[in-house]
Amino acid sequence: MTEPTYDQELHARRASSFGGHAAAYAEHRPDYPQDAVEWGLAGAAHPARDVLDLAAGTGKLTQGLVDLGLTVTAVEPDEGMLAELSRLLPGTRALTGKAEDIPLPDESVDAVFIGQALHWFDLEPAFAEIRRVLRPGGVVVALWNHDDNEVAWVAEFARRVRTGVSRVFKDENEGLAAAGFDPFEDHEFPHAHRRTIDSLLATVSTHSNFLVAEPAERDATLAAAREYLLAVPEAGAGEFDYPLVTTVFRARKS
Questions:
Q1: Total-model pTM
Q2: What local confidence, expressed as pLDDT, does residue 215 receive?
Q3: Would you say residue 244 has pLDDT above 50?
Q4: How far apart are CA 92 and CA 89, in angstroms?
Q5: Read out DSSP for 22-44?
Q6: Which residues lie below 8 Å from residue 96, measured CB to CB, with a gap of 6+?
Q7: I need a labelling partner for 208 at 20 to 30 A (CA). Which of 12, 19, 28, 139 fits?
Q8: pLDDT on residue 91
Q9: How far is CA 45 from CA 123, 252, 253, in A?
Q10: Which three-class secondary structure state does DSSP give residue 37?
């Protein structure tokens, strides 16, 4: 199947589609494996204390950073997503802002984390802002959860629902580079998301290409996906671990 060409208007609609579904996003999106987060932190020249979660959404990554005992500031442009984050993590500093205009002082954080969001940024001004707020030797870390396509039934499910946004952007960012940063390193970590058929389809429904799809197309695709999953032994009875891979890119401020 030929990949669709880039559509700026569609890209913008998808980027802004999450806020009205913030509660479902918080409930059904996966977290990030701790070893992936720790690998990102290890890219800094010194132990991290103050961390920015940029485009933090509902706090999926924020929670993991808080659990490591870090002082975390979450920045998110969407009011609905930020409200859900503040409800779930009331003790975390949460600010309205975007990657291209970060509401933090110069050299105020040791690490900037970006979970499932770098592909929405205007990269040149965003990286300039990230570099501005990082202390010397600080690190930028971008993470994506995506389907483990080495597992045959997962690859077929992903093909049927065509929700592989993060896979597409991961592939496009294999050669990621930014002015003022050392060369990016990348690493993959196995991950899993405990699901049922219903909750897996609920997860898929929070992906931007479903959120902006025509209702008839969305409903037909989900119905066909359900029929497929019912025939998959690994998914057909109760809860199961849906196989994921978490890809992490990190680069130190030079």
A1: 0.86
A2: 78
A3: yes
A4: 6
A5: HHHHHHHS----HHHHHHHHTTS
A6: 75, 76, 77, 79, 82, 103
A7: 139
A8: 95
A9: 23, 8, 9
A10: helix
Structure tokens at 192: 């899993």
**Which helix H or strand E contains 225, and what residues bound it?**
helix 215-230
Check residues 211 and 197 and name the one with the higher pLDDT. 197
Residue 56 backbone phi and psi in degrees, to 5: -75, -10
Q: What is the CA radius of gyration of the chain?
A: 18
Residue 208 has pLDDT above 70, yes or no: no
Q: Under a CB-based contact definition with an 8 Å cutoff, are residues 141 and 118 in contact?
A: no
Asked whether residue 9 carries a pLDDT value surpassing 50, the answer given is no
Nearest to 102 by CA among 46, 64, 140, 66: 140
b/e code 100-122 from CB counts within 10 Å (16+ = b): bebebeeeebbbbbbbbbbbbbe
Alpha carbons 87 and 184: distance in angstroms, whole number: 34
Q: Report which residue type is found at 227.
A: E
Collapsing DSSP to helix, strand or coil, 186 comes out as strand
pLDDT tens digits, one per residue of 39-98:
999 999 999 999 999 999 999 999 999 999 999 999 999 999 999 999 999 999 999 999
Distance CA 242, CA 49 (A): 33
Residue 27 forms beta bridges with which residues? none
Residue holding tokens 């992936």?
36
